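ingest -> validate -> predict -> emit
validate: passed (alphabet ok, no gaps, 195 aa)
predict: started
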Amino acid sequence: MSQSDVLSLVQELCTNQADATAIIKYYDEVVADLGRGEWLIVPELLPVTAGTFEYDPPSTIADLKGVFYDDRWLYKEELRTLEAHNPHWRDESGTPRVYVIEDESNHKFRLYPKPDHDSKDFIFMFGSPLGLDFPVYAVVVLMTELRIDLPAWLEMPVAWEILAREFARESDHMDLTFAKIARQLSQKMLKMVGP
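emit:
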C-alpha cells in the first residue's frame, strides 16, 4: 500500500481535519518504528567470497535480526569475547560459526572465522532461492527494513496510529479522547495481524 493511500485514508477517517504536513511526518515515524520492531522482517541472500569476512546488508536495513551461513544459524558474538578468546581471530579461516557487529550504525557484520569457500552461483532453476535453489556457502540475513510503502495488512493500524498522534498534539482539533481510542484501535489491530 502506498504512502499516499494511507494518508488519504487518514484524511477520510477524520473528515479532512488532519494537518497534511504533520501526518506525513507521523507516517514516516510510524513506519520507522515498525521497521525497528518485528513487523517487516525480510530475508536477503548475499554472495560470499572466500577470505572476505566483512559484509554489508542492503541499504534498506533497519535492524539485523540474524544471519545464516550455508544451512547453519550463526549466533551473534560480542567483539570483546572474540578478542579475549583469540586476539588473532580476524586471521582465522574456516566455516563461519558466529558473526560480530563492530559498528552498529552501519550494520556491517563480520563472519568468524573467515569463509574459506566462495558461494556457488545464484541460479534459481526452481524459483526457490531460499529452498531448493539455495546456493551453497551463501549468507542469508534476516533483517527488518525501512520502507516507504507498507503491506496492505498494515494500512489500517498505521492509519489509526497516525490519527492518534495527530489528535494528541496541540492544535485546533486536539481531542485526547479520540487520540486514546485511535491508539487502542491501532494496537488491537496490530495484535490481530502481528507477531
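The first strand starts at residue 41 and ends at 46.
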